[in-house]
Amino acid sequence: MSAFRCRVCRCAFEPRPLLAYENMPASAQGFPEANTLAQDAGARLEVIQCPGCGLVQLANPPVSYFREVIRATAFSAEMADFRRLQFAEFVAAHGLAGKKVFEIGCGRGEYLALMREAGATVCGIEFAESSAQACRQAGFDVVCGYIEDGSPLPGAPFDAFFCLNFLEHMPDPCAALRGAAANLAPAAVGLVEVPNFDMILRRRLFSEFIGDHLCYFTADALSTALRVSGFDVLDCRPVWHDYILSATVRKRGLLDLSSFSEQRDRLRQELHDFVDRFKTGGVAVWGAGHQALAVLALADLAGKIKYVIDSAPFKQGKFTPATHLPIVAPAALAHDPVAAVIVMAAAYSDEVVRTIRRDYPSTTLAIAVLREHALERIQP
Q: What is the pLDDT of residue 72?
């Protein structure tokens, strides 16, 4: 078998089947009739596991209708009652009454009706034209299509989405999840469900493998897929007699690092105020670690510092990257003195200050230390 890429983490590996089933039904929906029995043949299913993220999956190609949702559970009164309660709790918990919620793979609108009953304003996307048309006839706003990366949906951004027992059919489930995230408002929530492979493993349900289901998610594997697709997992638990894994997620926002720029500007001013108290070339920096190198560049100190001191011999005689300041041994303080030293040695800064006081006690060096948030004046 040629190299395979994991359907979630895209890790490339040489698949070795955990299980290989012969003469299996080629699909869950391929029911032959009397006149097609001769053309029906069993299929080989190969169950493999990604060595990276651990997802168990089929090496087989997807069934021809994998983009369509076919729901036998729509005929279950017990399932309908379960969904009513679940959707009501979901809408109440996240303030979704009157808010826009879309379903990925809405079938013929069975769950759209129940989500609307819970108080949300619903719409959906469904690949099968006949199912999408049935939804429209029932009064639902449904797009005929299949969501993937970059798929824009009319009415976006939405406040929430749900995708129930459909993700496991997809050859690239993360593309669909990223497509969902792209159509959501900031901090929007979602409800994602798949068959519970933790339960299948525990009960040794060997007959649960079928060509329609390409991915077999444990709680850990589902959480991984959701996280790498742009969501924070708020909750992931088994429901419905332990057969379903139900995850509640929130769209992950980008970090706000504007405070970093504010801190840089403030510290730059502090450094310049300190250096400008001395004649040009009268200040050295002690420390050529990555933090010091970054501060020298970001604070525009290149033309104001005489040299950089570092105790590591392999750095001495070289220059700081970007700012091109000479790196010298501590002995330079004796034969090429300066008026002030700024210590930028991170966790070693206090040790450096003690070294300066011990080895150069007769000097009148002004010493300042770069702390996490400010420049601290040590002496005189």
A: 75
Q: The tokens of 254 are what?
A: 């980008």
Residues 6+ apart with CB under 8 A from 260: none
Contact 58, 46 (CB under 8 A): yes
Check if the beta carbon of residue 351 is closer than 8 Å to that of residue 357: no
Contacts 24+ apart (CB under 8 A), 328-334: 330/286, 330/355, 330/359, 332/284, 332/307, 333/284, 333/309, 333/359, 333/360, 333/363, 333/365, 334/360
pTM over 0.85: yes
Torsion of CA 222, 224, 228, 230, to 10 degrees: 60
Q: Which of 355, 343, 352 is nearest to 285 (CA)?
A: 343
**Measured torsion, CA atoms of residues 156, 162, 167, 173, in degrees rounded to the nearest 10:** 30
For residue 274, give both structure tokens. Answer: 């300190």
pLDDT one-digit tens code per residue, 116-135: 999 999 999 999 999 999 99
pLDDT at residue 66 tops 60: yes
Distance (Å, rounded) from C-alpha 230 to C-alpha 69? 24
Helix axes 258-275, 290-298, angle to 10 degrees: 80
